[in-house]
Write a structure and sequence with these properties.
Length: about 375
């Protein structure tokens, strides 16, 4: 198949999943055309069967804000025509689904078919889409798509609860390349980060308020107060970072906390981790803990959103009530102080990801869904 993919090319879950999906499809012989305003950050190498089409936005004095959605629509039409796309798969509802539906309708006037599949990832539904100024457009774009997927049962139900959506939504979870994400031999790196017997706790996020990174720091402070020697590695960056940095100073633990910023590949850091900690107030799926589990790292996470779907039944860690710092602290200490339990959870974590979330298992589901949508549209 010749498949167009549009995503946000920046550091973030939806862009990562879309890019990895495109790479996996290309490896299986499909021709993939990425359409975005810049090269997705995980497409840094020239790869067979993958092409990139940049959306350029012309700036006119008339426009205070350049109309990106319309420029994207025009580029989608152009690529679909000249590359003979069989299907267009867009990640994130706005403006990508809106532009895709408009592009499809333009092509229909020229007797060309362009089935549109929209994948919902999270904040496009839980936060942005529920803004009253966007909600009607999001609702229309989802209903007008030829196929719709969501990355978790939670997000599927949230979409139905928040919008007047009639379209069937298929759940296809996020996935991971378990050959790429695995525990690496990084003893030298670990020796640079911490003392020989220190435990390493890792958190990865975009440092938005919803991630509750301050809770991570407070929980880590409690761990230190229990007498455990440990280091906290905070990976990522975002608007709440300065507040979190100040909190480490206020608590007097700044020497035990390292801010590493945005890192790729993150698996090198996860390879020295003893525990992954996520206190987020909202997660539609939980790509960061999935990456940790693939690297054999036990996890402690909030019991919100799609996280229970990932963690429950995995025997890879614990779920705690949102904001219950005592419960989080106790769960972390239990894992970090019981070597036998830690080894068991680490083994279960990786095995569970391989069985349920490996790239090859999930990409087949997308291929089958593409074929189903194409048959439906062309019937």
């Amino acid at each position: 198949m010749r498949i167009g993919i549009t995503c946000y090319p920046v550091y973030g879950g939806s862009g990562v999943v879309a890019t990895e999906l495109g790479r996996a499809l290309a490896a299986r012989g499909h021709e993939i055309h990425f359409i975005a305003y810049s090269l997705p950050f995980r497409l840094s190498k020239v790869t067979e069967n993958i092409y990139f089409h940049e959306v350029s936005v012309n700036r006119y004095p008339l426009f205070d804000f350049p109309p990106y959605a319309l420029s994207l629509t025009s580029k989608m039409v152009d690529v679909a025509k000249h590359e003979a796309l069989d299907l267009l798969h867009v990640h994130y509802a706005i403006p990508h689904a809106t532009s895709a539906v408009l592009a499809r309708d333009i092509l229909e006037k020229e007797s060309r078919s362009l089935p549109v599949v929209t994948t919902l990832h999270g904040t496009d539904i839980t936060i942005v889409g529920q803004d009253a100024s966007y909600s009607p457009v999001v609702t229309y774009s989802i209903n007008a798509s030829d196929g719709v997927t969501a990355v978790s049962e939670f997000l599927r139900q949230e979409t139905y609860d928040a919008f007047d959506v009639e379209a069937p939504i298929k759940v296809i979870p996020n996935f991971i390349d378990t050959e790429h994400f695995r525990r690496l031999e990084k003893d030298h790196f670990r020796s640079v980060i911490c003392a020989p017997k220190q435990k390493v706790v890792v958190h990865v996020s975009n440092f938005r308020r919803v991630k509750n990174v301050s809770h991570v720091v407070e929980i880590f402070h409690r761990i230190l107060q229990e007498g455990l020697s440990a280091k906290l590695l905070l990976v990522g960056d975002g608007p709440d970072r300065s507040n979190v940095e100040q909190l480490t100073r206020d608590l007097g633990i700044q020497e035990a906390v390292r801010f590493l910023g945005k890192q790729d590949p993150v698996q090198e850091i996860l390879s020295i981790a003893d525990l992954f900690l996520l206190t987020s107030g909202s997660e539609s799926f939980g790509l960061a803990p999935l990456e940790a589990m693939a690297c054999g790292v036990p996890v402690v996470c909030s019991d919100v959103g799609g996280l229970p779907e990932l963690v429950q039944g995995s025997e890879a860690g614990y779920l705690c009530s949102l904001g219950d710092l005592d419960a989080f602290s106790k769960a972390c200490m239990k894992i970090l102080t019981d070597d036998s339990l830690h080894r068991k959870m680490a083994r279960h974590a990786r095995d569970y990801v391989i069985r349920h979330y490996d790239t090859h298992r999930i990409v087949v589901q997308y291929e089958e869904y593409y074929e189903e949508i194409i048959r439906k549209v062309t019937a």
